[in-house]
Request: fold
Amino acid sequence: MKKTLRQLFAAIIASILIIALLGANPTGLVRLTIINKSGMEIAVKLNTLPQPCSTEPGTSRTCFYYLPVPEGSKEVPSTKVYTILKNMYIMQVYYIETYDPVYGFKCTQPLPNAIQVLQDMRVVIGKCSALPVNAGEPGMRKYLPYSLPKNTPLVRRYWISRFIN
Reply:
């Protein structure tokens, strides 16, 4: 009888540990979802901040990702999901356009922005010449193609924290 109770107790403890470890993320990987609503093909380059190398003193190393996303519009967005390491990144968005010599449409290259990716994140990238209308859902960040002053009267403080600029 005691042997059966010990085995049952051990099985219950093992089950609890297995359930607890299933939710763990030991590798530090997160999903970055990029939603393209810009009307043109884009690419996102993520660079980590330089970190000192433990094996070679005096040198530093960086890691980078180049993430292409096909063309999408506001009505029919294009979505790509990437798995990356948790880290602080410098994000640079490239609007890939085919230059039209007749009309001369040109999108200015936005400046790089800092983004901290510690959990699954969705980033919406809109047109290069327009501000987003609102901040979107709680787990979503919207990319601003140009810097927005912190004291902008038309944008509430809550929304500013949800933009990447």
Summary: The two ends are 66 Å apart (CA to CA). The mean pLDDT is 76. The first helix runs from residue 2 to 22.
